[in-house]
Amino acid sequence: MKKGHFGLIAVAAGCLAAAACAVAYGQEGEGTVAPEEALGAEQASRRLAVGRAALEDGAWGLARRQFQSVLAGAPDRRRQAEAALWLARAALAEGKASEAVRLLAAHQAKIGTASALSAGYALESARAAVASGKPESALEDLADFEGAYAGDPAVPAALRLRMDVLGELARWDEASAQGEALESLAPEGDAAPEAWMSLALRLASAGERDRARAVLARVAEGRPSPSPWHDWAEVARAELDAEDGALSPEAWTERLEGIGDGGAASAGYRIAARAYAVRGDWTAALEAAGIAAERASSPEERLECQVLRARLLGASGRMEEAAADLRALAGRIPDEARAAALQLQLADWFEQAGRPDDAEAECRAWLEAFEGTPGTAVQSKMATILQRTLTVSLTVTMTAMELSLARWIRRWTAHGESRRCRTPS
């Protein structure tokens, strides 16, 4: 899980992991794994390390081959059982829950309850149950986990998983109790605030808005500023208030002034910009978008803010400025499909503004730059605009990540849901 708010520590850790993985890849190579090869202890351990690094990097095929070779050729049952455990984790990462269940069931009986791997097997069995749509079974697997495996590094993850499962089942009080246990066990780490933020998202999505606010307040108070958890929680809480009509864009902006530079502040100002746009206050909207860009925590985030500002310019009627900005931004976006979509949006805007010749010129410019780019809806979009019949209104699709807490959770979890509002896309 990547956490952009750890700055140099996260960058350094990522570089070290990448370097280690690169060295490991160079030693083993993707084509050197012989599934039936007998391995020595050192070679088996090295392949396990390579497999773990590959799994972390999303290189599923390489990870599988490393683990399978150890499972088939390791000189001892412990390393074979460890390989089976990692194979199950790889299967879960790829969404293959039934395979994970089979692997865990086949090898769990071989390790014994006293094995150092037993906690890992119990935890992954619970995760496999969740992935298989059996949350109650997962809760059974996790019952008294902290008592059975006291002191094991897997205990915080088990508490977090149990909290998530109870949250999914809307058993709010029990989920909160798990959060308190996790916080007591790991008061200084990121596990507890991350779990609380995830619970707040579920509460808000279920309509339990006051409960969600209380959870966010707990996170903010437990991690005083300048903690990034404090900042994300405060921005999320302000967003809830604004969404419920209890906070004006002006009051929201005032709250944001107390938040340090970085992802939380930038996200907050982007949402404030959209809120001003909905009200038709284009001056304030553009100012908020500019502040969002200034306080962005990465070049990618800054680019998103600049795209938003260009769209706001277009929606406010300042077409020439918007067109110039979007053309420049399209050239800086590495994703060709997205860059092409921005170019086509210019054509949409000109068509709606009653400037069909300009719309056609933008489409032809798009053809020269992006023809054949996947995902850009070549034929239907071109036919519509060139025939001057485009009637699509200016809208923006904002995910619930940005409008219902998940914009802040997206750095730590993967939830998704769409909402549309009457502002520029």
Structural key phrases:
single chain; 425 residues; mainly alpha; 2 strands; 70% helix; 2% strand; disordered N terminus; disordered C terminus
SS summary, helix count = 23
Mean pLDDT over all positions:
74
C-alpha-based Rg, rounded:
25 Å
Q: Structural class of the helices, strands and pairings? A: mainly alpha
Give the strand content: under 5%
Order of helices and strands: HHHHHHHHHHHHHHHHHHHHHEHHE
The number of strands is: 2
Tell me the strand order in the biggest sheet: 1-2
Please outline the major beta sheet.
2 strands, antiparallel
The end-to-end span amounts to 29 Å
Q: Uncertain spans, ≥5 residues at pLDDT below 50?
A: 1-35, 374-425
Outline type: globular
Q: Residue share in helices? A: over 70%
Q: Layout of helices and strands, plus pairs?
A:
Elements: H1 7-28, H2 41-56, H3 60-73, H4 77-93, H5 97-111, H6 118-131, H7 135-142, H8 145-148, H9 155-168, H10 172-185, H11 191-205, H12 209-222, H13 228-243, H14 249-256, H15 263-279, H16 282-294, H17 299-315, H18 319-330, H19 336-352, H20 356-370, H21 378-386, E1 396-399, H22 400-403, H23 406-409, E2 418-421
Antiparallel strand pairs: 1-2
